[in-house]
């Protein structure tokens, strides 16, 4: 069976440029790759055919011979493409590796075409956990924090090289930051062990940073904590993270807020809750109490006659401010009616006398015991 024309196989015209040939091969490789065509039994053969064509047309000498003599140029062991003349897996692996970045580059870090790895690397982002009091979360504050981080080395201006000298291209990976090893049918890429993926080496590393371009240092920063923050609020300080490797851009610093529990107030979003104990007499007769507010002030609250434990009263606008504006929450006073302890004999006598004459004044108790009596009567029936 006659072999297909290599240009036709790649879907390009005769006389196509190197870039057009490579583009045609990329398209065919993605289209015909066996992993993407599990239901097509001919995909693997077509894929190998495309690789054989590209192996010839990407090489200027082989391409010139093919343009002049066609497939006959590689017959009889003349070192042609694909599976002839002992080329076999090695030629295929070489051809496939040229398009490896285009097929899988995004998954391996998105280096971009042709130029190898970026020489500088962005610094890491940092996280700092900051604990504050509820009062500070209410009012907002300016806080100075000390963050251990990596900063650009002033001895080499972040280059990692001594005396202003420039890094040189890594001889092991030729600046790619990776090396390739053939394992059977596939070509495997690994980070270059010589330059650790940087693509460059430094002949005279800086004594201060040992070629890293950065040094460890504690940095003091002033952080603006806006009013209304709560646990989990994240504040981003752009460019305050770790310095990049060898002059790379600096990462960011993220301040995570954690608000301490308060002795008097419980918070729920922008609302505050305060549990206030009151005496039996105040709850029964009514009265007025003074309660604290989160801003350090005081508010007077009237207690209605006959108030029960758990009753809530609202103080509008006395809660927490909403983060980035949007009004202010409310404060809820919850009454906790106290039972007196350590009574004297006289106090006990007074309470017993009061209990005898005030049984009908306990509506909830009377209703409950009527329900209990009805339940028992029903069980007997």
Automatic annotation (TrEMBL):
All residue ranges annotated as the CR-type domain in the record: 140-218
Encoding gene per record: dnaJ
Cofactor binding, per record: Binds 2 Zn(2+) ions per monomer.
Name assigned to this protein: Chaperone protein DnaJ
Binding residues for Zn(2+) 1: 153, 156, 206, 209
PROSITE patterns per the UniProt record, alphabetical: DNAJ_1 (PS00636), DNAJ_2 (PS50076), ZF_CR (PS51188)
Residues that coordinate or bind Zn(2+) 2: 170, 173, 192, 195
Species name: Yoonia ponticola
Keyword Cell membrane tagged: no
ZnF segments: CR-type: 140-218
HAMAP family: DnaJ
One Gene Ontology molecular-function label: zinc ion binding
């Amino acid at each position: 069976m006659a072999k297909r024309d290599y240009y036709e196989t790649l879907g390009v015209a005769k006389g196509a440029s190197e870039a057009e040939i490579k583009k045609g091969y990329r398209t065919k490789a993605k289209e015909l790759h066996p992993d993407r065509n599990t239901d097509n039994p001919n995909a693997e053969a077509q894929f190998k055919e495309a690789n054989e064509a590209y192996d010839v047309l990407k090489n200027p000498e082989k391409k010139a011979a093919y343009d002049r003599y066609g497939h006959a140029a590689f017959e009889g062991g003349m070192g042609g493409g694909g599976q002839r003349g002992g080329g076999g897996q090695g030629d295929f692996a070489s051809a496939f590796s040229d398009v490896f970045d285009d097929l899988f580059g995004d998954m391996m870090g998105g280096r971009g075409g042709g130029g190898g790895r970026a020489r500088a690397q962005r610094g890491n982002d940092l996280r700092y956990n900051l604990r504050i009091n509820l009062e500070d979360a209410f009012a907002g504050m300016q806080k100075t924090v000390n963050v251990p981080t990596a900063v650009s080395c002033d001895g080499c201006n972040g280059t990692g090289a001594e005396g202003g000298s420039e890094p040189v291209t890594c001889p092991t990976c030729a600046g790619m930051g990776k090396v390739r090893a053939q394992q059977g049918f596939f070509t495997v890429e690994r980070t270059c062990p010589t330059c650790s993926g940087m693509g460059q080496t430094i002949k005279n590393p800086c004594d201060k940073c040992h070629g890293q371009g950065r040094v460890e240092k504690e940095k003091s920063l002033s952080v603006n904590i806006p009013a209304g923050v709560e646990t989990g609020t994240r504040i981003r300080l752009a460019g305050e993270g770790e310095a990049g490797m060898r002059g790379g851009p600096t990462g960011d610093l993220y301040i995570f807020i954690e608000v301490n529990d308060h002795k008097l107030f419980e918070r729920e979003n922008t609302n505050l809750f305060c549990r206030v104990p009151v005496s039996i007499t105040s709850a029964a007769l009514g009265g007025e109490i003074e309660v604290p507010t989160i801003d350090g002030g005081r508010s007077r609250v009237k207690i209605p006659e006959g108030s029960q434990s758990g009753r809530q009263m609202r103080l509008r606008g006395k809660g927490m401010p909403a983060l980035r504006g949007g009004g202010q929450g409310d404060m809820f006073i919850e009454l906790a009616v106290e039972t007196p302890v350590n009574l004297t004999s006289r106090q006990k006598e007074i309470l017993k006398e009061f209990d005898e004459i005030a049984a009908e004044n306990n509506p909830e108790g009377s209703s409950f015991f009527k329900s209990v009596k009805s339940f028992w009567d029903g069980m007997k029936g």
